[in-house]
Design goal:
Length: 285
């Protein structure tokens, strides 16, 4: 499938760190695990089929984390896709531990981040991770120590580029004083724009902004809301409207909607072709 035929290509591309070109509609691999993002999915083969279909649709950024499962999402990606096609970027994250379904605990200690990265390398079956992100800020650990650990891993060749997640503008600036940062992954969607200042900082400096929770776990897709009304007028789905709005909001926006369903995946990727007219954008804004 050529780039021009790939549905995901309709979203355009962004270059991270000067040498990592990815399409602006990626895939978030959190929901290919079990309930509560814990354990194996009910049908591992179906989960792998979703991953393979994402690549067939032209998605060339898959985002995961060692805490999804934990370890399950990364393992499934390695089993389904390695050796990886040329141009496919698998980004992962470290800095959260799990104690059960729906339970998440920050751990930004340098030794934990190093061990997490080493485990991700093994499960993803790579010698270097193209984009490794600090998953969250651990308030019990000096922020500079956590970022410094990622800088060391980059210097050792285990990480190609460093990203951050769940940070403020101040934390972004502090991190950039230690290591080059190419992206930020914060919660952002039609209903939650608390990270607007971080998005603006990323746009100003040419960093990728990866909005997690882009569909607010489905709450934006319900009938009767603004996205639903716009979708009805355009003959598309509310999910597609919510994703198209994100893509239109900034040239550095890089949504990564996730799902465990091939059908839902195809619907999400089709949002790359949706262009919202000015009156629709005005209603949504």
């Amino acid at each position: 499938m050529s780039g021009g035929e790939a549905p995901a290509a309709g979203a355009g591309s962004i270059t991270l760190g000067g040498d990592l070109s990815v399409r602006r509609l990626g895939f978030g691999a959190m929901r290919i695990t079990g309930k509560g993002i814990w354990g194996d999915p009910p049908d591992p083969d179906a989960a792998k089929a979703v991953l393979r279909r994402a690549v067939e649709l032209g998605v060339n950024l898959i985002d995961t984390a060692d805490s999804y499962g934990p370890e399950v999402s990364e393992r499934l990606i390695g089993e389904a896709l390695a050796p990886y096609p040329d141009g496919l970027v698998v980004a992962t994250k470290g800095g959260l531990r799990r104690s059960g379904p729906g339970r998440w605990h920050a751990d930004g200690r340098p030794r934990h981040l190093r061990a997490a990265c080493e485990g991700s390398l093994e499960r993803l079956r790579v010698e270097r991770i193209d984009l490794y992100q600090l998953h969250t800020v651990d308030r019990r650990v000096p922020f500079e120590d956590s970022v410094g650990a990622l800088a060391e891993l980059k210097a050792e060749g285990k990480i190609r580029h460093v990203g951050l997640s769940n940070v403020t503008v101040d934390q972004l600036q502090r991190a950039r004083a230690i290591v080059d940062v190419v992206s930020v992954q914060n919660r952002y969607n039609l209903a939650d724009r608390a990270s607007q200042d971080v998005l603006e900082a990323c746009q100003r400096d040419g960093l990728g902004f990866v909005p997690w929770h882009p569909l607010a776990t489905g709450s934006l897709t319900r009938a009767g809301g603004r996205a639903g009304r716009v979708a009805a007028s355009l003959g598309v789905t509310a999910s597609q409207v919510a994703l198209a709005w994100l893509l239109a909001a900034s040239p550095v926006m890089l949504p990564i909607p996730g799902t465990g369903s091939v059908g839902h995946l195809e619907e999400n990727v089709a949002a790359a072709a949706v262009r919202l007219p000015e009156d629709a954008l005005a209603e949504l804004s």
